[in-house]
Amino acid sequence: MRGCWILNESLSITIVVLWLGVNLYLFIDTFLWYEEEESFHYTRAMLGSTLAWARASALCLNFNCMLILLPVSRNLISFMRGASTCCKGPWRRQLDKNLKFHKLVAYGIAVNATIHIVAHLFNLERYHLSQSEDAEGLLAALSKLGNTPNESYLNPVRTFHTNTTTELLSTIAGITGLVLSLALVLIMTSSTEFIRQFSYELFWYTHHLFTIFFISLAVHGAGQIIRGQTPESLLLHNITFCRDRYAEWRATALCPVPQFSGKEPSAWKWVLGPVVLYACERIIRFWRSQQEVVITKVVSHPSAVLELHMKKRGFKMAPGQYILIQCPSISPLEWHPFTLTSAPQEDFFSVHIRVAGDWTGALFKAFGAEGQALKESHSLPRLAVDGPFGAALTDVFHYPVSVCIAAGIGVTPFASLLKSIWYKCCESQSQPRLSKVYFYWICRDARAFEWFADLLLSLETRMSEQGRAHFLSYHIFLTGWDENQAIHIALHWDENTDVITGLKQKTFYGRPNWNNEFKQIAYHHPSSSIGVFFCGPKALSKTLQRMCCLYSSADPRGVHFFYNKESF
């Protein structure tokens, strides 16, 4: 087992190391090129090493801007996941970490943008100082180039008395650089966990500043502030011979005045492909949004949870996947992700939406869920659905024993899975490899059990009727309660069903002792391969990883736990 767990982890590390390696290679290679390239000899004389710092970070910035849109191209990810010939086994699981890679690339953009900005601030100051009266020698000669006809300038700051900030903001490079910086700051700051939880709408809208960011990036280099000697000038003006004879440049044919030009902008070449690909992604999303979605059932659960049953032509799903929902009457632009809670075998697909912000609150009101009676079907708001996306939890069926662990809202993808398990194991003609499922749910708020308990009660009843009550063993842990709840629980403890969930299996109070739980599972399945599937916070994920390693046998014939962290 340990080898398998380490393999999954090492693949993630391999991707990060590969990304870092390419960034370092591009940065070092470009840095050394600008430090040694003959055509930028005079530019280096004026700017020093900050020339190389600015250009190397610019190339890495282009590289990361090329990558940033690929992880959020959901249809591309879905295509790659389905193409078994190009993406097999553990590598396919890396596609589930697309948002982590998206964030990693964003950090790369932020770091390189910071280096680029700081380097150019130094460059601007050196350009400015080169025009001062104190400047002398080669520096002064280079700064005066362009003052007479038939000469091209090297220093974009033409006089020492010029306000460099005003001068910069009058250029294409300066204006687009400011726009790029502001857009990047807004996108990065609004992407923090706090902002996303406080106002998802703010995160969503500011993130779409990426359109302005990419347009500005494409034209940023057109300013051509950084200039180098032209190839024709290099043939006539031998730098080794002429650099110390700057006083004779206009007087002798052996050392003609060097001519300079800026490099053509290249950022657009890096980002054109991903931008076109992402544009196709949005076109597909628009096309899907126009397809009719029929709402067949609306259920208002306690604790402000709205259950929607829908149908859409050609819709196919797998357990654990999610969809994007848009409600044009609330916002014609916003799309919000929700995990599917129905099983693939059902003739509808469903989501459970809990009020947790402005948009979900507005949706709750639009369906009349806050009142005594829900709206009639003809008066329900129109919904658009895109998807499904994400990884399927089908690996659960690849083990004879599976352990499913959910914490808090992480229970949502397991709703679809448990239903699918029921259909495959209790109603299907062919018997799957899976023979036992352990389900654990750790939750802080007792009210969160209300909608999910109905599903568990239904499964519990149907499995008992089929004589398969032993197939699913579930354990629910409540980690938060007040004094009144404690009294109520104590008074009804002897009843046949649990006072909170209504299930035969009683709720546990407090947190699970994972040592005991894994020890018991290992004892009851001494020679089995056991899949452990978790959806929840990182801290608990690390604990479960450790338990999987601890209770896996060193003997190949013994029990082995295979850990799988699901991303939703």
Give me some keywords for this one.
single chain, 568 residues, alpha/beta, 3-stranded antiparallel β-sheet, elongated, disordered N terminus, heme binding, transmembrane, RBOH/FRE, metal-binding, oxidoreductase
How many strand elements?
14
Helix amount: 40-55%
Cα distance spanning the termini: 24 Å
Silhouette: elongated
Biggest β-sheet: strands ordered side by side in the sheet:
12-11-10-9-13-14
The tally of helices reads 21
Residue stretches low in confidence (pLDDT < 50, at least 5 long) are 1-8
| Strand coverage percent | 5-15%
Give the integer mean of the pLDDT values. Answer: 82
Main structural class: alpha/beta
Note the main sheet: 6 strands, parallel
Radius of gyration, rounded? 31 Å
Brief digest:
With 568 residues, this protein is an alpha/beta fold.
What does this structure look like?
- The strands form four sheets. The chain has a six-stranded parallel beta sheet, sandwiched between helices. The chain has a three-stranded antiparallel beta sheet with strand order 3-4-7, with no helix packed on it. Strands 6-5-8 form a three-stranded antiparallel beta sheet.
- It has 568 residues and is of the alpha/beta class.
- It is 48% helix and 14% strand.
Task: Set out the fold topology.
Elements: H1 2-36, H2 41-47, H3 50-68, H4 74-82, H5 89-94, H6 98-129, H7 137-144, H8 164-168, H9 172-189, H10 193-198, H11 200-207, H12 210-220, E1 227-229, H13 231-236, H14 239-242, E2 260-262, H15 267-289, E3 294-301, E4 305-311, E5 322-326, E6 336-339, E7 349-354, H16 358-366, E8 384-389, E9 401-407, H17 412-427, E10 436-443, H18 449-465, E11 472-478, H19 483-491, E12 508-509, H20 514-524, E13 529-535, H21 538-550, E14 560-565
Parallel strand pairs: 9-10, 9-13, 10-11, 11-12, 13-14
Antiparallel strand pairs: 1-2, 3-4, 4-7, 5-6, 5-8
Subcellular location: Cell membrane
Catalytic activity: NADPH + 2 O2 = 2 superoxide + NADP(+) + H(+)
Membrane topology: Multi-pass membrane protein
